[in-house]
């Protein structure tokens, strides 16, 4: 698949074997590895890879900082990198964000290859070109747009993800499919068991669907000025859940909780029929594995976090909700009372489902 972006067209390939050595040829390169991924795969997928020029990072939000990006730049400067050199990142969204930022600022942009190893990075974040770093306690507040030149996806990596991280990726897959309305919801219902069992053939079809779905939005509105904002569906709530739980809830599972909120509020506004609301709820509860603490759903904390959301442009709360017949729209008139009512409903639902 090719993705058109403002300064290049980049490619996404699904592969069965990561043949990096062959791909980089005689170019000077530096690999930034998720340390955990290297440790798991050093005897198999990466056994023939020359790692004499590699950096190993713990995929931890605390290292997603400008200091880490600068450290990588220093190593590239010492090598030294030339115009044909390549930065390669192997890991999930954390490694992607750090290396994308470093690749963007070094020499005003160098060649960059990304091999995503989490389901979330494979099905969602690898395309779209966003790079984000944390600053002090502010998550993702620094950022640029800089896509890799090439993305190589080997779905077999997802077999070693923890259940929490795997379901985090499935949350984003569910989001795309619920956004795709009736067809997407039916597909999810039909294949949810296979997805939960990490059936690679089934995942392959959903990976393709997710990337094709996202591609339309990012090509039409690369810089988030219009239609791409709809991809933020479930995220205003999701970011608030992440923040209030101090990131104990992985991103994609917070998005699933956000889907439940958008679902409940849309129903309360008369925009969604009862049958669809229940079908979406039934899907979403299967995508949550973290033990939730009901304190994380305290209305004043969640509403406070939503008010701090960096996407908010007015005094009112903003969210993407369903409009009639499963279309989506951004609303800027969400009232705190509506959020509060849905949070109470969410807690009862989660308690009933033994998740809280
Ligand atoms: N740039 C973007 O467009 C974008 C979009 C969404 C999220 N993000 C960012 O991505 C981050 C979340 O990324 P993520 O969910 O991909 O995960 P991650 O990078 O946080 O990794 C999650 C965990 O999985 C481990 N891991 C990675 N691959 C593995 C594998 N194959 N087997 C076993 N363990 C593996 C990591 O070591 C880590 O412990 C957040 O910082 C978020 O802000 C960025
Ligand atoms: Zn997301």
UniProtKB/TrEMBL annotation:
Residue ranges of domain 3-dehydroquinate synthase N-terminal in the record: 56-166
Enzyme Commission number, as recorded: 4.2.3.4
Sorted UniProt keywords: Cobalt, Lyase, Metal-binding, NAD
GO molecular function annotations of the record: 3-dehydroquinate synthase activity; metal ion binding
Pfam families per record: DHQ_synthase, DHQS_C
GO biological process terms, semicolon-separated: aromatic amino acid family biosynthetic process
Domain called 3-dehydroquinate synthase C-terminal: residue spans: 169-311
Cofactor: NAD(+); Co(2+)
Record-given protein name: 3-dehydroquinate synthase
Organism of derivation: Trichlorobacter lovleyi (strain ATCC BAA-1151 / DSM 17278 / SZ) (Geobacter lovleyi)
């Amino acid at each position: 698949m090719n993705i058109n972006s403002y300064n290049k067209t980049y490619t996404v390939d699904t592969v069965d074997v990561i043949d990096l050595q062959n791909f980089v040829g005689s170019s000077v390169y530096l690999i930034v590895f998720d340390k955990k991924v290297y440790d798991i795969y050093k005897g198999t997928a990466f056994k023939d890879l020359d790692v004499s020029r590699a950096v190993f990072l713990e995929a931890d939000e605390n290292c997603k900082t400008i200091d880490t990006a600068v450290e990588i730049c220093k190593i590239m400067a010492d090598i030294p990198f030339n115009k044909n050199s390549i930065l390669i990142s192997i890991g999930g969204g954390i490694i992607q964000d750090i290396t994308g930022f470093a690749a963007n600022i070094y020499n005003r942009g160098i060649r960059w290859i990304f091999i995503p190893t989490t389901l979330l990075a494979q099905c969602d974040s690898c395309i779209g070109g966003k790079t984000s770093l944390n600053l002090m306690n502010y998550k993702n507040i620094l950022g640029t747009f800089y896509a890799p030149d090439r993305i190589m996806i080997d779905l077999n990596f997802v077999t070693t993800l923890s259940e929490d991280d795997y379901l985090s990726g499935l949350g984003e897959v569910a989001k795309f499919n619920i956004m795709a309305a009736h067809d997407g919801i039916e597909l999810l219902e039909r294949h949810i068991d296979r997805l939960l069992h990490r059936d690679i053939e089934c995942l392959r079809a959903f990976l393709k669907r997710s990337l094709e779905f996202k591609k339309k939005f990012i090509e039409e509105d690369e810089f988030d000025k219009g239609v791409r904002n709809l991809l933020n569906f479930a995220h205003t709530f999701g970011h608030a859940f992440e923040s209030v739980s101090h990131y104990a809830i992985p991103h994609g599972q917070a998005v699933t909780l956000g889907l439940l909120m958008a679902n409940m509020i849309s129903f309360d506004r008369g925009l969604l029929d009862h049958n669809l609301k229940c079908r979406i709820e039934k899907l979403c509860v299967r995508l949550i594995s973290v033990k939730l603490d009901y304190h994380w759903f305290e209305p004043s904390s969640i509403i406070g976090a939503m008010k701090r959301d960096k996407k908010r442009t007015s005094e009112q709360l903003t969210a993407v909700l369903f409009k009639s017949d499963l279309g989506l729209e951004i609303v800027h008139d969400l009232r705190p009372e509506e959020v509060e009512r849905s949070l109470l409903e969410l807690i009862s639902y989660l308690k009933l489902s033994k998740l809280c």
